Amino acid sequence: MIVVLKPSITEEQKKNIIHEIETYQLKAVISKGVERTIIGAIGAEEQVLKARPHMEAFEGVESVVPILKPFKLASRDFKKEQTIIDVKGFGIGGKKLAIIAGPCSVEDREGLLRVAKSIKKSGACFLRGGAFKPRTSPYAFQGLGEEGLHILAQARKETGLLVVSEVMDPRQIDLFEEKVDVLQIGARNMQNYSLLKEVGHSRKPVLLKRGMMSTVKELLMSAEYILSEGNSNVILCERGIRTFEDSTRNTLDINAIPVLKKWSHLPVIVDPSHAAGKRDIIPAISMASIAAGADGLMIEVHPTPQKALSDGAQSLFPEQFDVLMQELEGLAKTVGRTI
After folding, report:
1. Which residue range(s) make up the domain with 100?
2. 132-190 pLDDT, tens per residue?
3. By the number of CB atoms within 10 A of the CB, which of 70, 115, 168, 277 ranks highest?
């Protein structure tokens, strides 16, 4: 439930309300909006039902409203305003589109720096690259591990780009804290609840990818795991789902973008590379995603895709990425955004 506070409420009254919520074994989560401050009382439904009649009688309470969605903290019921995630001064979810680009995997220092400098020149603000790679085959390239994180940190230092990289195991999080600016949860780990809880204890922004066979509601419930542990910096990522269609790697669920925007206050970005699986259609679905309301894109770019150790077929050449950025700049203006 949501406890809407009066503008005139005192700090003492607010403390009393929080204390009362906690006596019912519920978690009190404060959200300060433009017009009102609210307290979300999150927990078991039976405890919420017990607490609700008592909350309405407290001094400083304007109203008590139930949250009907199962994803309480991620829902628009909890927060009407769009959340903007601050990543070292860059606001994901704001007017400026978040463009994340780079190779699927960190393969070597020279190649990563080359692509980092190129995408920076084209206008990207974030560098992506996998240090630890979950692969379908145990014999495929699994990434450079900790060495890859060091290379990403070097690229960040030399270019000023913010770094996004995938964490696969709760035991890896300490390694990522200094080297990475945004923790990525991959599609295969969307329902790895132990990992979700652990990144929830971090205060690093988390980019949560939709599972390849997961519904929009399941994506939001996974986000709820992170939010419920105290980390409010969650970015949702649509990356295509598995259907019977085999002309592309996955099927980009363009519907998910406006649906997520309607149901949740969290920013939404799109990964057209994994949806397409083919570089020639990435520009078209990138443009479609921004037109549908996405807050940004995550695009694979490799200096020599034909030699890439993973996902070469869906990686743009730097020159192609540069052209796409110019096209996106024109589209962004028409939808009230900037690059």
Report:
1. 85-334
2. 877 777 777 777 888 999 999 999 999 999 999 999 999 999 989 889 999 999 999 99
3. 115
